[in-house]
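Let's practice the habit of predicting before peeking. Look at the sequence and jot down your guess about where helices and strands might fall. Then scroll down.
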Amino acid sequence: MTITAATMQAETAEGLQLHKAGDLAGAARRYRAALARDPGDADASCLLGIALKEQGRTGEAVEWIKRAVARRPHVPAYHASLGLALQSLGRSVEAADALARALDLDPDDAAAHVNRGVILRALGDRDAALTHFHRAVAIAPHLAQARTNLGELLQELGRPGEALLHCQAAVAIEPRLVEAHLNLGDVLLALGRTAEAADSFLRAYQLDEGRAQAAAGIGLVAARHGAWNDALAWFRRAVERQPGSVDYLRYLAEAAGMLGLYSEVQSCCERILEIDPNQAVAHNALAWLLQDAGRYAEADAHYRAAIRLQPDFATAHFNFGVLHEEMGDLAEAEARYRSTLHYDP
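Done guessing? Here is the structure:
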């Protein structure tokens, strides 16, 4: 919230103080009082929109912030606030445009660079996002959100060595920022520094036990060390906290498989395919379990799905060959084995 109280009428300034104190309802009442006195009070209109957004009333928020933009289109904070509200509604392209306008008016707004970078990254434009994050760090090197977002994207781009410096800086700047510890853990894990990665993920978990990514990170470190019972427990926690995550279900299935808990593997695969039917690995794993249970027709359907989704999936071709050999169809089995060798000599 970058709007100041210097030129506000009394009700708006009082509302801002309540807003900063966390009294969103009280702040909204004062902003509305200011607007009743002066419907053209753009600051009150924007701040009311921000308060409504923070109360979860984002549709109303956008309309109030738009009024502020219409009244005073040259105030960069209004455009930045509009961008965040639009992003909360999932209107990412419009949000990016609003933040671009804010940056046209104030190119040195580090927070706007970070926020636009986050949106562009989600839209798939990682190069533009990287430019914004670098610019934010150059403007405000002590802004933890800028550092951790830059580190996270560098890691995603396969540059963990560069990412490490920024992730470490973010943790040092804001030690209670959960995302900073998570991103540092990911980078350290990618660099093979598993003991340090475990410390980072554990710190994130201590700060927010409801964060699935922290539990999954601790599980990944345990898996790296072959501590599959520990990994299983942490992956279960991750899935409990975020049951719709295909990645966490996949981690859990792998740990369960390593421990011979095949009913849990099957459950994970079935849940993965409910969420995303296009997961070839889950089709193959489920087919193998169904084949082992003698449910050949169902296994056949899942192997076919795996190969359709990933034609060069050598393991699926091999398993499909074994299925046909067990069924006595030796010609088809031979064809599948030849396909296996074609894709994995």
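How did you do? The longest helix spans residues 24-37.
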